[in-house]
Amino acid sequence: MARGAGPPLDPARLRAARAGAGLTQAALAAAAGLHRAQIIDYEHGRARPELHRLAALAAATGAGVADLVEDGALPPGLAGLRSGAGLTLAAAADAVAAHLPEQTPIACSRPVLGRAEKGALPPSWRPEAAGAMVRNALGVAYRAAAADVEAAWATTFDGPVIPNPTPVPWTPPRPGTETLADLRRMADMDHAQAASALTVDAGGLAALEDGAELQGWTTADAGRLLPALATAYAVPVRMVLDAWMRTRPGEVPEIPLPRRRGPSSAALETWEALNPRQRLYLGEIMRDERMAQAEQWLRRYHHLRPDPAQVWRSLPLALAAPVELVGHTRLQQRLRDAGVHDPGAGSTVHALARRNLLTVTRDTVVVPSVGEVEQVSVTLTRAGRAAARAGLGEPAATRPPGHLLSEWLWRHLVRVAHTGDEGLHENELAGKPLFHLAVGYRRRPGGHPARGLIESRPVMAPQGTHVLEYRWHLTEVGRAHLVAYWEVYADLYPEVDTEADGRV
């Protein structure tokens, strides 16, 4: 069954349930949050509702999901119990997890529940007390009787479960300190289950997690295994890379980097079709946009909220007022310096707009000592930006590979690296970067942890009586990441100052 798809609906049963509830098609549609046309399609067998819509139809008619679908349509075991409750796998995982005791080591993410429905008993469910808590949470989340849950459990796991008498104790790690073994346990998989998902030997996987030397193993082999681990454990590749470097210090998996693409033929053709004046305008507008982007970096640096992209990308071009009163805009001055002595919102700008290379907007701004003045602004489109890059001989813009940092985060990591053993004062780094880089942080509750490339360390008083302050330092993985990918970042982000005076 596809993600979100519901079991086959029986049109006759839907019509009977609607009639039994005394509802018209329009009334049922309103009660279920649907359109009447959808109800008509369902009742004539022309469409199959998704699971959440099937649950809405059941609730609106006072029936159960099982009462509306074809005989035998619900799968056996826990999957059928969930479908009967009208819950998708993701919604069910959230609902069950919400009814488990807080701070419990019992896992119930979407991948864990999905594997459980296929008969793979998660390790954290095996202890007798844990299994009882999971069954209770299933009953509450699915609004099912305890006997029905027990029966579905026995069907799914092929009979009564023999509890694991000696469960291996494990405490979830601090965010940003995960090892390969931690990732497997967070996915609630034992060595055999993980090895099966990865099509590798369980003993080899255990040796990998122990940091043991693997005969014939190369960094290229490691690089090929990383995406498979990320898929099996349902985490990003960057998280597996960091865990790998914590588990196996000094070993950096070889991950192929995408080739830097040259400009597209369409962008080159667009540039070639422009006259010299239009090319000059487009190039200077792109340079002005880059200056505006640099200003946003400075705002981040000084812990100020940056403007939304649609705001700073809109570049003031001309003001409808005498120059002696309002002066030239920065973009006008750029054009004048390039030899255009009548820069404004005339034929050149509108010709570029007609080619969909930029957009022109007009609004009103207040100029001190002048009052309200009409302002003409221009914004590059993607096609305009691509044509300007092609004409100036620059490679096409590419996102960094998933295991590398964005330019914004790389700048912050370099800032910490520049401070060496002294560290960066805690007040010098705050806000969003910490939720991506620092040990102990995660981007959102329940989300993936930060990468753990930096950590806060206390600076003690001379006699060790109290903490004077806290400073940010590179972690061992942060230092290894920086050394391993220094040249790659230098190529990706040449404008970032990576001169660290030998202190890295």
From TrEMBL:
Looking at the UniProt entry, the stretches that span the membrane are none
The lineage's top-level taxon is: Bacteria
In this chain the HTH cro/C1-type domain maps to 14-68
Q: Name one Pfam family in it.
A: HTH_3
Gene3D superfamilies membership: lambda repressor-like DNA-binding domains (1.10.260.40)
Q: InterPro entries per the record? A: Cro/C1-type_HTH (IPR001387), Lambda_DNA-bd_dom_sf (IPR010982)
Entry-linked PROSITE patterns: HTH_CROC1
State what protein this is by name.
Answer: Helix-turn-helix domain-containing protein
